[in-house]
């Protein structure tokens, strides 16, 4: 099950519980967020918590959780494999336009909750978008390439936020 589907499903379930038991949805979401944050601290962090700005990186796999901060980066990887980004109450500008890859396809998993993500991909990439915007926008503005080299599979969700991919 994808992370985006899990988050959307949990929010829908919480809305149903809220209606059924007349509970405060804000209290439930805040409580779950604090519990999630505590679990992340106790179990260690798979991705990196980001407070970085305008960096240049050479990572082949980009995994970030951007929480109440901004993350701007340009990747210069020579064998890029995938990106997994979660933006909560933050903003991110990720430039992949100079990356190279040996893979025939690349996965880009993006979740924006009360946040914004703008991602630039190389002009030779064909972008296949499978995302949903819930009171937000999930847009693919990448122009189809003249000569397709790599297929980028963009998946995710934008809830009260936005995900935009361009080339």
Automatic annotation (TrEMBL):
Q: Which UniProt keywords apply?
A: Membrane, Transmembrane, Transmembrane helix
Transmembrane residues, as ranges?
6-39
Superkingdom, according to UniProt? Bacteria
- Tell me which PANTHER family the record gives: MEMBRANE PROTEIN (PTHR40763:SF5), MEMBRANE PROTEIN-RELATED (PTHR40763)
The name on file for this protein is Cell wall-active antibiotics response LiaF-like C-terminal domain-containing protein
């Amino acid at each position: 099950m994808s992370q985006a589907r899990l988050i959307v499903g949990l929010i829908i379930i919480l809305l149903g519980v809220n209606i059924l038991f007349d509970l405060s949805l804000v209290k439930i979401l805040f409580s779950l967020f604090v519990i999630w944050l505590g679990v992340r601290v106790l179990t260690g962090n798979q991705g990196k918590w980001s407070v970085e700005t305008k960096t240049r990186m050479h990572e082949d796999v980009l995994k970030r959780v951007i929480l109440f901060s901004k993350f701007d980066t340009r990747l210069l990887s020579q064998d890029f494999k995938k990106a997994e980004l979660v933006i909560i109450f933050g903003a991110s500008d990720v430039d992949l336009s100079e990356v190279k890859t040996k893979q025939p396809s690349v996965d880009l998993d993006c979740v924006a909750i009360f946040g914004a993500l703008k991602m630039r991909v190389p002009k030779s990439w064909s972008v296949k978008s499978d995302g949903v915007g819930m009171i937000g926008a999930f847009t693919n503005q990448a122009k189809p390439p003249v000569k397709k080299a790599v297929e980028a599979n963009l998946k995710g969700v934008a809830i009260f936020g936005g995900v935009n991919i361009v080339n």
